Amino acid sequence: MRKLPPLGALRAFEAAARRASFKHAADELHVTPTAISHQIRALEESLGVRLFERQTRKVRLTAAGHQLFPAVRDGLDGMERAVQAVQRSGRPQVATLTSTVAFMARRLAPLAGRFRAAHPDWTLRLDASDQIVDLDHDADAAIRYGSGSYPGLLVESLFRDRFAPVCSPALKLASMQDLKHATLIHFEWGAAARDDPRAPVWHRWLAQAGVEVADPQAGLRFTDEIHAVQATIAGQGVGLLSLTLVAEELASGALVQPFDLALESFRYDLVYSERAAERPATRLLRDWVRGVFAG
Q: Domain HTH lysR-type: where (predicted)?
């Protein structure tokens, strides 16, 4: 008969050790920080050793904690994989990929059929969200848009986005000076991105192009990037748009890029957690995304 502490106490210990925080462990396990503290204290008493050094805003493993943590982590990971394998055996296999609303609508949704054709035994679940999704529990992988820095996660760079003026060919934009009389279409970035020097906004593009317009903030403004794209396709003005998001329209001729000058912007990265790296769903998504977008 195995002599082991309660599973709940081991889960609390593993989460707190991995996150270096009782509070973050509590959030992950959907309990209170007090409950985590009690479970770990009971575990320490049963083992007769201290597992953590308590500090004001975080905790650190003691030597005994460092000795115990890898075995508990690996044991729980093995249990999770076994449970998932049993669950998959009794239901369809689902791979969940999350990304921003705009990238999902403009690039991933049109490609979903390719995944299904290549992997008929799998269901592809596409989760469109501009919020950060938990990649340990709520998705198998993500295509994220940003600086490329995602602490604690595994990151594979896909490509860097570029922005340039695009418009309907019906507008007959012949020179940069025509922009002085054109309706400029703006997407309103969030505060954090707007203050980033890589944020592609009209006044930055115009400054690099050496074009002066009466009011570079005037025109049509949208809080949703997809709406800015739709207005541009409809011929409502000239949009400073992601060349990634309008690649199909540029290829078909529905939109044109009158000027070569483009602003380098944020990165698209394939991101997943270390714990999820060997899931069949994550491996499948990783290979598929690489094949579609990398290079």
A: 5-62
The radius of gyration of the chain's CA atoms, rounded to the nearest angstrom, is: 25
> Is residue 101 a contact partner of residue 66, using CB atoms and an 8 Å limit?
no
Q: Compute the C-alpha angle 197/226/186, nearest 5°.
A: 45
Where does the chain hold its CATH 3.40.190.10 domain(s)? 93-159+268-293, 161-264
Q: Which whole number is the average pLDDT over 17-36?
A: 91
Task: Specify whether domain 7-89 bears CATH 1.10.10.10.
Answer: yes
Task: Identify the pLDDT of residue 97.
Answer: 96
The highest-level CATH class for domain 161-264 is: alpha beta
- In the CATH scheme, what is the code of domain 93-159+268-293? 3.40.190.10
pLDDT for position 91: 60
What is the tally of helices (H) and strands (E) in the chain? 11, 10
The residues of the chain that CATH labels 1.10.10.10 are 7-89
For the packed helices 33-47 and 22-29, what is the interaxial angle rounded to 10 degrees? Answer: 110
Give Cα separations from 248 to 124, 162, 252, 261 (angstroms).
22, 15, 6, 19
For the whole prediction, is pTM greater than 0.85? no
**Per-residue model confidence (pLDDT) at position 294:** 67
Query: How far apart, in whole angstroms, are the C-alpha atoms of residue 276 and residue 140?
Result: 7
- Of the candidates 163, 134, 129, the one whose C-alpha atom is nearest the C-alpha of residue 245 is 163
